[in-house]
Amino acid sequence: MREDATAVELRPHVRLLHGMRRPANWLQLVRFGLVGAVGFVVNLAVYALFVHSVGVDYRVAAVVAWIVAVLNNFVLNRHWTFDARGGQVHFQALRFVAVSLVAFGCSLLLLTVLVESAGMAKVPAQALAVAASTPLNFLGNKLWSFRASA
Q1: Is the alpha carbon torsion for 81, 83, 89, 94 positive or negative?
Q2: Per-residue pLDDT band at 14 (split at 50, 70, 90)
């Protein structure tokens, strides 16, 4: 019985090592990074447009920028990064939005702290906040939103 307990305890570590040895996972991470870079540019462009040209509150601008970037990133990640076209799009979309909302919540909290407490300029603060939430976003989408069927 002791051997079974040890095998269960080591399983996440073994899975992680196995996953890191697969070149496909690294390629997927690179693709996610490229999609993320496009989404990052889209996010910052929409954010800057709404803050500076439209003149809305920076938090409202962050929400609008997030919505536009999420739509863009969902399509690109579903079709290119994770090649998950075989899955049911509405389930993937709901999961993607859920993961994105969690990451956005972290990002918005950090953005508010950087702007209000640290006195940082709004666009650089948005850039840092979005970048900081990226690892959480990747893991959530790889392991849940677009996971391969067992």
Answers
A1: negative
A2: low
